[in-house]
Amino acid sequence: MILKKYDIIVVGAGHAGCEAALAGSRMGCRVLLMAIDLDKVASMPCSPSIGGTAKGQLVKEVDALGGEMAKISDKTAIQYRTLNTKKGPAVQSTRTQNDKNRYHIEMKSVIEKQDNLELKQGLIEELIIEGNSVKGVTDQTGFTYESETIVIAAGTFFSGQVHIGTHSYRAGRSGEFGSYSLPDHLKKIGFKMLRMKTGTPPRLKKKSIDFTKFEEHGSDQNPKPFSYSNDSVNYNPMPSYIGRTNEKSRKIVVDNISLSPLYSGRIQGVSARYCPSFEDKAIKFPDRLSHQVIMEPEGIDTDEIYASGLGNSLPFEVQHQFVRSVEGLEEAEIMRPAYAIEYDAVDPLQLKHSLESKEIEGLFFAGQINGTSGYEEAAAQGIWAGINAACKVQKRDPFILDRSEAYIGVMIDDLVTRGTSEPYRMFTSRAEYRLLLREDNADLRLSKIGFELGIVKEDIIKEIVERKSIIDSEISRIKSQIVKPTDETNRYLSEQGSNKISNGVYLDQIIKRKGMTYNTVKTLSKSPLNISEKIEKQIEIEIKYEGYIKRQLSEINKYKSMENIKIHPDFSFEKIHGLSTELKHKLGTVRPMSLGQASRIEGITPAALSVIMISLKKGENKDS
User: Fold this and answer.
1) DSSP string covering 427-459, please?
2) What one-character DSSP code corresponds to residue 140?
3) What is the pLDDT of residues 287-308, one digit of tens each?
């Protein structure tokens, strides 16, 4: 029995699924969002936070494209911090701590109120496929939902297995149903799956913690909202608390390492190097006898504290000893034990840049199922897949951002070009053009694209156009304004610890001096325009880093020239003479869209690129 046909069906209602469903519906498609449990929509099963280094950039880009994560973060934040403020603007990132339950409630409310979007509970067990195209899905009751466009955003639920010491059980997350029939179905139809592992630390009872033994950390003094649509923040701040483990903590873990499924061989999934469990810290860093621990509240109306830094998969009785070895946790009560979970992920090399399967038309994948980790990486893939699913329905060209346009473009290109052998995490170091891909300009970069897609509202674009006009006008004025060497000017420069001037100097050259900010403009040549604090910062960055920005723009032009050399989908790398069998296999697996993408495949050398380019010019290597 089929009730109705949908344009898009999204399987999974985590951060990826929610953004995919909202994007598709806002673009005018009829969307069905399927969740195993409606009480877990947009759940935050691990850290009670959104953003962080590089992750904040992803959230800002999702927001600029018309996504929801940043808006919900602002509604549910209990702490704001800007990271890396002592470093350059390219690596500064926003991070909020959030009330987990409120985050779920707020996101679920947005989804329920969204036009063209239906939210239903059900466990999808099989895809309906005709030829090489998807036609619908079937749930655990045998009921069929019909659609020619499916987005799978299953998180850790595919063949999930939870481990606590020697005990393990099947679950998508601790206490939640997993999905086992659908991953088996995908394997049967030819998908290559990866086995990944992640984990989460224990939750402790707040009243059992001696916070006087920890260092209190609160919010920034003047927090800025995460979403560009908000002018200010209105929240109930709650502090976090920082402490450290000790030699006793490490000894307890090392003495019981044989009981850890991570080291006993029970876990086959690959862990993330950049988010190690305490077992990994104790074994891999034997010289470090102390590690940071952060006590983070999980919300306003709960007594649970997230013990960041104490993640492990040891038996409960060992966890009890381990937790209580930390100063300030001598009487701590564990409300939820730490655990490890391993799960199946789809090898992302099987996906196009649109996140559509190369083999099954209309089938998209988004989020942790693509081998990534983190709420932010998931949300970014979700909006990307949702937009592309809608583009497919509407017979529009795929939505693709390249590495020079967005952090999201870097992440997608990394996944589909290089694949991943461990849970992928975004870092600023992965983005070669990061000075241009800052948090502060994500809306200037991407909101127009979101508007053209039909997701971003017109009033937001109007504000951005006006702001860009002010920025350009003010930068032009500053570059043309000559500051004369008056007594007043030189007195100001001396007070700022800067050299005096003896001749007229353009104002932008003074701002570029160390320690100078836009306040210099206010003092030496006040603008006739209405310049907000946000605009001040953007003008300052554009002027101070002008040389670096020009250099990156030049590099982007070279990058674009490689990207513009397209490779036909039917191009046969097997027929190229002068390439090793290994490189032919890699090129055939990835099927790069351009010479630029081919250059980023592991093992491709300049000589190999030259051979490919010659073959492309001949145009004789298409499969018949």
Assistant:
1) -GGG-TTTTTS-STTHHHHHHHHHHHHT-S-HH
2) T
3) 998 999 999 999 999 999 999 9
The edge-to-edge listing of strands for the beta sheet with 133-139 is 124-130, 133-139, 144-146
Distances in Å between the Cα of 356 and the Cα atoms of 54, 346, 350, 353, 399 are: 25, 12, 9, 7, 11
- Using 50, 70 and 90 to split pLDDT, how confident is the model at 620? low
Q: Is the pLDDT of residue 624 over 50?
A: no
Q: Note down the domain range covering 569.
A: 565-618
Residues 6+ apart with CB under 8 A from 553: 436
H helix or E strand, kind and range, residue 540: helix 533-544
pTM to 2 decimal places: 0.95
Per-residue three-class SS string for 335-401: EECCEEEEEEEECHHHECCCCEECCCECEEECCHHHCECCHHHHHHHHHHHHHHHHHHHCCCCCCCC
Q: DSSP label at 481?
A: P
From CA 356, how far away is CA 227, in angstroms rounded? 28
CATH number of residue 493's parent domain: 1.10.10.1800
Q: Residue 345 forms beta bridges with which residues? A: 194
Q: Identify the domain boundary among 282, 311, 339.
A: 339
Of the candidates 366, 426, 470, which has an alpha carbon nearest to the alpha carbon of residue 33? 366
Cα–Cα distance for residue pair 340/161, rounded to 1 Å: 8
Tell me the residue ranges of DSSP E strands in 401-558: 482-483, 505-506
DSSP class per residue in 212-277: GGSEEE---SSPPPSSTT-SS-------EEEEE--HHHHHHHHHTGGG-HHHHT---SBPPTTS--
Q: What is the pLDDT of residues 196-221, one digit of tens each?
A: 999 999 999 999 999 999 999 999 99
* Of the residues 314, 339, 364, the one at which a domain ends: 339
- Distance (Å) of CA 198 to CA 65, 208, 274, 604: 29, 27, 11, 31
Q: How far is CA 548 from CA 176, 341, 623, in A?
A: 49, 43, 44
Residue 168: inside a domain, yes or no? no
Give the bridge partners for 425, in sequence order: none
One-letter amino acid identity for 553? L
Buried b (16+ CB within 10 A) or exposed e, 319-352: bbbbbbbbebbeebbbbebbbbbbbbbbbbbbbb
Residue 301 lies in a domain: yes
Here the CATH number for the domain that contains residue 276 is 2.40.30.260
Structural domain count, the chain:
4
